[in-house]
Structures are given as structure tokens and as C-alpha cells.
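Students often ask what a holo structure prediction actually looks like on paper. The answer is less mysterious than it sounds. You provide the chain, you provide the ligand, and the output is a string of C-alpha cells encoding the 3D arrangement of the protein together with 5-O-phosphono-beta-D-ribofuranosylamine.
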Amino acid sequence: MPGKLKVGVLVSGGGTNLQAIIDRAADGRLDAEVAIVISDVADAFALERARRAGIHAAFINPRDFPDRLAFNRAVIQKLRDHGVELVALAGYLRITSDELVDAFAGRIMNIHPSLVPSFCGKGMHGLRVHQAALDYGVKVTGCTVHFATKQVDAGPIIIQRTAPVLDDDTAETLSERVLKEEHIAYSEAIQLFAEGRLRIEGRRVRVLPAKC
Ligand code: GRF
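The corresponding C-alpha cells follow.
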């Protein structure tokens, strides 16, 4: 039997998506193991979550490098050192570098807390996304797991899950509702990848039937 898919997770913040992936892998619903968690932020709580789960946790300080290219190369090297087959961006606040996309072409996923192509792109992160959805007045929002490409939030979509927008929502309450969907969606997308069921066809991702 082939070994479990090795996932490298890049984070900058609290890491609830990371936690959901760790939990699904631990309870056997996800045929993957988190091989390494890398953060560009020293005190990201996600690093602590990784350590508690016995997973390698690395802080790579962008200031230790002369430029972005050198920093990105260090991240790629760390992922390779740990045998990473799939990179999952989970609240990683750096724009995905061209080098990373080239190094892991078709093997990088990102999660965004809206139904792409709404409320996404440069500068759209955190509560800003949910505030934009509220300001626009949409009745349904959600989350998107997609393959990362060189354009921000624009890669082929793997899974979207929806959440209702309620009349008295704030950006915070909406964010909490969407996060619950994110925690389901990310593991589902990784599981489909682990089963070899995702085929990128131009902008579309075809989900192949499960093998019996
Ligand atoms: C999530 O909303 C994710 O969609 C976005 O950043 C947030 C990260 O949350 N890319 P967490 O750190 O996983 O709790």
C-alpha cells in the first residue's frame, strides 16, 4: 500500500484550518499526514498547534534573507526536505510566489473565505472579505478551495461550500459561520487529491469517480 500523502502547510495566523486538517488526518478520515508546518510569523498560533500534534513546525523569518526570492527558496527547500507532495496554504498572508508555484505546479492549494470570484484578490483577506460581502448585501457567501496559480485567488476551483448571510451578521459572526465550512472543505479537497481524483482541465477541475 502506498504511503500517506505528505502535506506541507503554510500559515501566518491562528491555524484553525490547519487544526481541522490535523484532526481529520488523526481520526482517519484523511489519508494524509502533515509533514511540516511553515510560518513567516514567529508567534503564529498555528505553529503551536503543529508542535502540540508532534508535527515539525518551522518559523522562517523573511528578514533573515536579502530579498523575497531568497526567502521563497528557503521555504521551497524546507518543503522538499520534508518530502512534501502537496502544499496547502492556510491563512498564509504572503502572495504566492512564482517560484513556489513553479516548484509545486498543480500541487498547491489555497483556501479563500468567499465564493470566488466574489470578494477576492489582492488585499482581500481576513474580516475585510466578510465586510465586503455584508456591504454588497449578498444573501449567500461561503468558501473556495482552489489550486494556487500566479494570479491571486484565481486558480482552478476544487470545492466551494456555502453559508447564509443573516440580517444581523457582523463580519465576525459571518467569518465564524464560513470558517466552519472551510474546515470541512479543505480536508475534502485534500482527500480528493490524495485519492488522485482531481484533474485540472483549463480553468475547471474535474472530480473523477472514486475507485472501488
Ligand atoms: C481563513 O479564513 C482562510 O480562508 C484565509 O485565512 C483564514 C485563516 O484562518 N485564507 P485560520 O488561520 O485557518 O484560522
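The chain has a mean pLDDT of 96.
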